[in-house]
Amino acid sequence: MEEKREQWGSRLGFVMAAIGSAIGLGNIWRFSYMTYSNGGGAFLIPYFVALFTAGIPIMILEFSFGHKMRGTAPAAFAKVKKKFEIFGWLPALASFGLLTYYVVILSWALSYVFYSFGLKWGEDTNAFFFGNYLQLSDGIWNIGGINTAVFISFILIWAINYFVTIRGIAEGIEKACKVFMPVLFILSVIIVIRGITLPGAIEGINWYLKPDFSKIWNPKVWIDAYGQIFFTLSVAFAVMIAYSSYLPKDSDLSNNGFITALANCGYSFFMGFGTFGILGYMAHTQNVPFEEVVSQSIGLAFVTIPKAINMLPGANTLFGVIFFVALVFAGLSSSISLIEAFASGIIEKYNMPRKKAINLVCGIAFIIGLIFVTKAGLYFLDIADHFLANYIITAAGIIECIVLGYIYGAHKLREHANAVSEVMLGSWWDFCIKVVTPVVLGISYILNIKADFTQSYGGYPWSANFIVGWGAVIATIIVGIMLSSSKWKKDIFVDVNKEVQG
Ligand code: TRP
Predict the structure, then answer these.
(1) Is 146 helix (H, G, I), strand (E, B) or coil?
(2) What is the pLDDT of residues 251-263, one digit of tens each?
(3) How far is the CA of 313 from the centre of ligand 1 (A)?
(4) Residue closest to 433 by CA, chosen among 415, 406, 412
């Protein structure tokens, strides 16, 4: 008998959810910061090259893999070869790890929706964010207890995530994304229109679009571009494999892959006009060079933007609410997909009722997340993010390309995609999967290891990097091994031949 598998209500619902997963905090603050620190327009060239040589091919790869195997990442890899199951758990666990602190950043954004009323962040937005709001302690080992202001938002954000994912694919995730995405789109259009019509905006936009070709030869710019593409598209996180496993049999995979990736990157590019317009306006108002108005990554959303909101000629509160609500909506559709990436694997492996799996995943993530809600939370978040992104996710990406490209055979997935899709993939696609992506990721892997062993990341004490950073990496691998060596409660292999060959 055909197993009863949850399914999307419609193609639009699937695409909305995939785009919802992709569009998140990364598109608004990470993209602007990356573009900014890598020389503005100079970054856009490697960014779009990375989109076409890695982003889109991997997106289609994951869609085809999940769809063909009709399984979440662990099951899908196990169907290639039983021993490969761990390669599905690693990215699923990476999603879980990201989830624990992603909701914390979302909580900050939610708090800032409320602070927008009456511009509560005051004149010195930097002191407000790190001092009054985060109450950041003077060093990572000075943990200092839970921060109440962050904690309140944290509970609210978790509540929303919980109530969406507990309702399942079509009733929960799909319905939520069908509301979040259009609202986000409207808010974003307002932000961009406001941004580009401010005096001085053109300076910022010029900086955004004008390529500085001298930067293009710097390998760091390329590595950042590929890293940003992986992060922003949510690939190598087990999410897209799980989502596509809920697609009906005759779904156009390549087209959906193109649509999801292009919508996501188009959105980032579009929002860039808003952000850089506002930054240009700030430079103009303060009469300083453009380079001087921007602060580092997290600061961009929570320090620079509030400062810019203070300076707007009118409707300041309204604009603040719009900006931070947009951030929250963008992030929520991503965090629910992070929950789903891991929970769906558990549901499938242990044949567990959805409710129980969601309780378990949300409960544990909530508890682990508390460390990021303490007064040293930002330090922990910074280290966890660096190690997770550079070691687990990069490794998951390389492994995925090698296992699917060489061992399983990229051409088989290409034929699968071509059988159901309108756009035909050629052998260029195999080349991107088998050569371009693993080579670029491999180089960045080596450079990262080298950097982290010669210099303690972020200037933190070595003890912190070892315990928090490598600790998280090792814990992920151990849990991954434990999960993959436990027994399947459901026989997913019965129909494997029929499905894999069929
Ligand atoms: N793409 C998301 C963003 O830009 C972040 C992200 C990375 C993500 N990997 C993910 C979200 C996996 C959901 C699932 O913010």
Answers:
(1) strand
(2) 899 999 999 999 9
(3) 34
(4) 406
Q: Tell me if 41 sits within 8 A of 217, measured CB to CB.
A: no
The model's pTM: 0.92
Query: Hey, where are the domains in the chain?
Result: 11-501
Phi-psi category of 214—alpha, beta or left, where left has phi over 0 and alpha has psi -120 to 50? alpha
Structure confidence by residue, pLDDT tens digits, 425-451: 999 999 999 999 999 999 989 988 898
Q: Which of the pair, 490 or 55, is modelled with greater confidence?
A: 55
Nearest to 398 by CA among 442, 428, 446: 442
- Give the number of the atom of ligand 1 that is nearest the alpha carbon of residue 30: 4
Query: Pocket residues for ligand 1 (CB within 6 Å)?
Result: 21-22, 24-27, 95, 98, 231-232, 234, 237, 239, 334, 337-338, 341
Statement: 11-501 belongs to CATH 3.40.50.2000: no
Q: How far is the CA of 99 from the centre of ligand 1 (A)?
A: 9
Cβ neighbours for 115, distance < 8 A, ≥ 6 positions apart: 121, 133, 306, 320
CA of 102 to the centre of ligand 1 (A): 9
